[in-house]
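ugh ok fine here u go
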Amino acid sequence: MTEIEKLEFLSPTQLCQLLGISRATIYRYFADNAITTVQFKGKTLIRRKDVDSLFEDGHKYLKRPKKKSEPITEFYTSKDVQEKYGISNSGLYEIAKRENWPKTQQRGKTLWSRKHVDAYFAKQQPSDEISEWYTAAEIQARYGMSLSAIYCLVSKEAIPKKKVGAATFYSKYHFDLAKGIAEPKEPEYYTYPEAMEKYGLTRDQLHHYLKYHNITRVKKGKYTHILRSELDNLLKSPEI
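structure:
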């Protein structure tokens, strides 16, 4: 019998070692309440007795039916996506790679699944707190930028944008901030280390909360930023 098998209480890491499964799988079980846990500040424990009971009360294994994927019949060209959502060609390919958008080739053109593209940008709708917006023409007039330069900056700095009919609007504050004109407000986002330090979480625990509570995240360069207001609201101390 190993040392872990002798323990009455286990950490998630020890439970992974005991069962031979990944941390991601363990946290999925936690989220589904398949495994009972007790959470202390910065520490999660599982009673070994509860783990054993899972096997004592186990059910017959049921093979999961394969999901039939619907054929993709509607597509955008790269130009369609760039014009509709105001992003650069490089920004388009970066998002497509990260989000794994289905694509196909037709007569030398790349076609992107309309459903996946629209679903992605629907989730990127800006906060209602943003009240002032630029059109591309207004940005060109103020900063003397080309459309491609605007698209590149919007993609690079994750500047909020919205669609109204066929027109695309860009957050005035965020664009001015990116150009060094506006003064920065109190940060809207946490970095991973900041959120982990504030709430005493491991990276895996933080990732679990972000994923299963659909907390807004923004990719800036190679770093992921977490919307401060949503995470604070989720993890705030309960009111008595």
